[in-house]
Amino acid sequence: MDKTSFFNDVFEVVRLIPSGRVTSYGAIAEYLGAKRSARMVGWALNGSGGQSIPAHRVVNRNGLLTGKTHFGEPNKMERLLVDEGISVVENKIQDFDQVFWDPAIELL
DNA sequence: CACATGACTGGAT
DNA sequence: AATCCAGCCATGT
Question: How far is the CA of A99 from the C1' of B5 (A)?
Fold first, then answer.
């Protein structure tokens, strides 16, 4: 298991997130067995540039679009989510519990 | 090698 | 309910 495996696993899970759904860094980290390494998930997504990774579907546990600043255009992430049917107000996902997609449950 | 920072989280205040 | 603090781990200075 080299380091790239972690990144690859993160990308794989994120790619499996269905449209109109979102998940959290902690949920992905937990699914990968590193629940205390949510920060590493964010770091992994940092290298998702160039890959076909819908990173806009990954937010923090509050449903807050903390990573929007890394999309080049701060409004791009929110626009993409809204376009998929997710309600976003002031960088915050509305009905977060309804659109939340947990790989540890949905990906059984 | 030590310290600071970050796309986080959970518990405490 | 809002804010603060400590834990985690990789990367940069």
Answer: 31
How many domains is chain A partitioned into structurally? 1
Predicted local distance difference test score (pLDDT) of residue A2: 55
Q: Is the CB of A58 under 7 A from strand B?
A: yes
User: Range of A33's domain?
Assistant: 3-106
Q: How many CB atoms lie within 10 A of CB A85?
A: 10
Give the C-alpha distances (Å, rounded to integers) separating A85 from A64, A92, A94: 16, 14, 11
Q: Quick: pLDDT tens for A71-95.
A: 988 899 999 999 999 999 989 999 9
Radius of gyration of chain A (CA): 13
Q: Stated in angstroms, how far is A17 CA from C13 C1'?
A: 37
